[in-house]
Amino acid sequence: MQRVVQVRVKVDVQADRRVLAWNDIHGPARGVVYGLLEEHDPALARSLHDEGWGGHPLKPVGVTSPQFKGAPRKRGVYTTSPQGSVWFGSPVPEIAAALVSALARRAEIVWGDARLRIQGFAVEFGAPAPVAGIVELETATPVVLRHEGRELLPGDAHYIERLEHNLTHKADILGLPAPRGLRVLEAGPRRRFTVRGAPRIGAQVRVAMEADPRFVDAIRSWGLGLDTVQGFGWIR
Questions:
Q1: Is the N end or the C end of the chain the one with fewer CB atoms within 10 Å?
Q2: Residue 228 in contact with residue 235, Cβ under 8 Å?
Q3: Cα(185)–Cα(38) distance, rounded to whole angstroms?
Q4: How far apart are CA 181 and CA 183, in angstroms?
Q5: Closest-CA residue to 66 (of 13, 107, 110)
């Protein structure tokens, strides 16, 4: 069984601008993650990028898009505030350690055209402690799923099937029991972003499932659904 951990890193940031371009919300996430890994462990970064982890193409790493508490609401604009944060995480100790080490040396994160000045840094280990049985998880960023090339939203045919498949695949990689009884309790509105010229469509969700506490720990530092390295599916 793969040794798993729950390591989530909250980086408090302040952007050098009042508005982020829409292409800069999720678009830079993948490059930022690999850039951090490259700084600490180039071989790990290359292996994860080229081959995935444990013989599977999935990458057990998660990140959010920059989140700004109290940002003014303006239609069609992604505004910032002085209270920004970006979360990073991984259930794999080697990857988590590389992220923590690289972030600890940074004064800023270049996020697309924006510069995010780091104001604080906190590492969350294994908290809150999960309990056995049914758990509820809510995402902070949209969950991306696909079926036969089409991106799915909650309520679509195959949505539960594909999310169960994704979770089972992640459990297999980590050598943990797969969750059961997955249900979507609540879903947010459809969101559409562009990542490297391609659309990413999804919605934030609140789900319930019966899961091993170790898997809940792991998934909290990885995320739900696909493209977690691009900032999707991060769990609050």
A1: N
A2: no
A3: 39
A4: 6
A5: 13
Judge contact between 3 and 203, C-beta under 8 A.
no
The owner of tokens 């949505």 is 159
Task: Count Cβ atoms within 10 A of the Cβ of residue 179 and give its class: 0-12 exposed, 13-18 middle, 19 or more buried.
Answer: buried
pLDDT tens-digit readout, 12-62: 999 999 999 999 999 999 999 999 999 999 999 999 999 999 888 999 999
Length of the chain: 236
For the chain, the C-alpha Rg in angstroms (whole number) is: 17
Tokens 């691009």 sit on residue:
230
- pLDDT, residue 32, reads 98
d(CA 85, CA 119): 9
b/e per residue 143-173 (b: at least 16 CB within 10 A): bbbbeeeebbbbeeeebbebbbebbeebbeb
pTM higher than 0.90: yes
CB < 8 Å & 24+ apart, contacts of 51-57: 53/92, 53/95, 53/173, 54/2, 54/173, 56/169, 56/172, 56/173
